[in-house]
Design brief:
Order of helices and strands: HHHH
Helix content: over 70%
Number of strands: 0
Distance between the termini: 71 Å
Number of helices: 4
Radius of gyration: 24 Å
Structural class: mainly alpha
Strand content: under 5%
């Protein structure tokens, strides 16, 4: 069974995480019984289950990118204003 990342697990809701843990336990048991045909089905369910967590992680990344862009624009604007003030003082 393939686990999802810690970041994705951290963004799963409680009921999603409980179901994820239960499916992983079932998958591990099936692997110990060498029932790989059934493990593939359980893994497919896990892959579907974690999709909302993956989307939440992507949204967090997009939000972080927006905040970084906003910070850089504000910094660039402040530098430009400082340069304009320095030019006015020189005149």
């Amino acid at each position: 069974m393939r686990h999802c990342s810690v970041q994705v697990r951290g963004l799963l809701k409680r009921d999603e995480l409980d179901r994820y843990n239960a499916l992983m336990e079932v998958g591990s048991y099936l692997e110990s019984q060498t029932r790989y045909d059934l493990v593939a089905i359980v893994q497919a369910e896990v892959d579907l289950l974690i999709q909302p967590g993956i989307e939440r992680l992507k949204e967090k990344g997009r939000e972080r990118d927006r905040m970084t862009q906003q910070y850089l624009e504000e910094k660039r604007r402040a530098e430009w204003e400082a340069q304009m003030l320095a030019l006015e003082d020189d005149e």
